[in-house]
Amino acid sequence: MNYIPNAEGDVKEMLGAIGIGTGDMEELFRIIPPALRPLSFNLPPGSSEFDVEKYLRGLGRKNLTELVYFIGGGFYDHYIPAALDAIVSRSEFYTAYTPYQPEASQGTLQAIYEYQSCICRLTGMEAANASLYDGGTALYEAAMMAIRITGRNKIIMDGGVNPIYRKMMYSYTSNLSIDFSEIPVSHGQSDRGMIDEYLDDSTAAVILQNPNFFGAIDDHSDISEKCHKAGALVIESVYPVSLGLLKTPGEMDADIAVGEGQSLGMPLSFGGPYLGFMAARKKFVRKMPGRIAGATTDGKGRVGYVLTLQTREQHIRREKATSNICSNQALCALRALVYMSLIGKQGFVELARICRDKAEYAGQKLGKIKGVEVKRSAPTFNEFTLKLPGSADKVIGKLLDKGIVAGFPLGRYYADMEDYLLVAVTEKRTEREITMFADALEEALWS
Known about the structure:
Blueprint: H1 8-17, H2 25-28, H3 49-60, E1 68-69, H4 82-88, H5 91-94, H6 106-123, E2 127-128, H7 135-150, E3 154-158, H8 163-172, E4 179-183, H9 192-198, E5 203-210, H10 221-229, E6 233-238, E7 256-260, E8 276-280, E9 291-297, E10 303-310, H11 330-367, E11 373-374, E12 383-387, H12 392-400, E13 404-405, E14 408-409, E15 420-424, H13 431-446
Parallel strand pairs: 1-13, 3-4, 3-5, 5-6, 6-7
Antiparallel strand pairs: 2-8, 7-8, 9-10, 11-12, 12-15, 14-15
Helix pairs in contact: 4-11, 6-11, 7-8, 11-13
């Protein structure tokens, strides 16, 4: 079904154009005999797209169990506006010509340029590339970029960084001479004392995440200041939706910002395809991997778009290549651009606030259950950690039978956290669903 939004003024104008001066929709159908008309054309007031779709899907799935997701860990169940798929599914987008020939690819190049601009605004940074494969790849590329910039080979990685990303980092660099130091999380936030202890003149970068994998929010501005005094860079991995409320990497004086862009209009889709984004300070732009599109003017003064930089091994001498990336996630980046355009600046703020508020409500409900402790050593955004009076894996299994994906069992990555559960709440979760989750959790623990 096409989505045709018509404001009340638009409707009256159209009715007026066909001679119905009253602007009354009932008048349009007056010629139809009453016996042949529906009972009434007085339809109820419109609801939000999300509410209408949820209602219709509910009718269509009365005989099926639809899972309710409270799982996150870097990948989140956000709502995707219907207009996004309608726009991105246009043939000129999904069959776009590769951007090597600007005279044939102005649309693709402009989309990349606009995507980069949005990522810069979102992160508070000065330059962005055309995208990377996913959040973990982006983090690895940022570490290699820092090593190229500083000429150093030591990376300090905070223990709050997503363990999937850390595993990818160690796998990608297993044959390289890089000295890694991993700092355990202290009370949910970065351990400043241990970072100071490991920071020295061989450190290329300190890798941080905000909010971290446990959901804790941190202001890393003080760490950035100390790193820069030591000649090291700061790499900040961020959850883009949180930037509607939280300090941006730019405001925390980070040098490189990366993250997983799945929450910017990509469905969970069994793990991909996803989108890695990267932004940095302008002075480091020549050390960034992948493609970078720029705007210029031609000989007639017309605005045009080109690939300004593409320091890949296909284009320059191999020893000067910044990466072996052979492509960017162009269609996923386009989805992210369309999503950010549809949501808008104020929409981002409102989306982040809704996610935060619903997570706070869920934390309060779950914290009232006997034996359940909500870890509150640090403020959180839309994700928080629960300590349960038993195995998180067993609880997840029981709740899955009730159609609830309860969260992520931290014992899967941390040996001493078998009874810890990471819970995520997005704008899609309703008060009823949160209450249902709390009731089911209490029953699973004590029935």
